[in-house]
């Protein structure tokens, strides 16, 4: 049970580290809807166009986060050994 808990903790930590690393990699989501909303707001800056632009921008942000989560899953096999090496294999009590 303790070993399973340790493995699950390492997996969670490695996914978190991989997600954080993937989060800071710059990226760009190009969508036609965003361009249309931006140009509509630029030509006619009304509250309706601003609301449409905010809605599409939020959708883009969610797509970026989803993409980063997928990249974190891809990077996780690289992060797991790093967490395993950095975490102590045995506590002092177990060594005695």
Measured on Cα atoms, how large is the radius of gyration?
A: 21 Å
Sheet/helix structural class: mainly alpha
What portion of residues is helical?
Answer: over 70%
Task: Note the main sheet.
Answer: none
H/E element sequence: HHHH
**Tally of extended strands?**
0
List keywords for this structure.
single chain; 96 residues; mainly alpha; 4 helices; rod-shaped
Describe what is shown at a glance.
The chain is an all-alpha fold.
Give a written overview of the molecule:
The protein has 96 residues and is mainly alpha-helical. Helices cover 81% and strands 0% of the residues. It has four helices and no strands. α1 (2-23) packs across α3 and α2 (32-43) crosses α3 (47-86). The radius of gyration is 21 Å and the shape is rod-shaped. The model has no long low-confidence stretch (mean pLDDT 80).
Secondary structure elements and their pairing?
Blueprint: H1 2-23, H2 32-43, H3 47-86, H4 92-95
Helix pairs in contact: 1-3, 2-3
């Amino acid at each position: 049970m303790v070993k399973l808990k340790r493995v699950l903790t390492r997996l969670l930590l490695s996914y978190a580290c991989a997600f954080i690393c993937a989060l800071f990699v710059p990226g760009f989501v190009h969508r036609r809807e965003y361009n249309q909303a931006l140009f509509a707001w630029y030509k006619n800056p009304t509250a309706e166009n601003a609301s449409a632009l905010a809605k599409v921008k939020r959708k883009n942000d969610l797509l970026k986060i989803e993409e980063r989560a997928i990249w974190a899953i891809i990077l996780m096999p690289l992060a797991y050994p790093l967490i395993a090496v950095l975490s102590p294999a045995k506590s002092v009590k177990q060594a005695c």
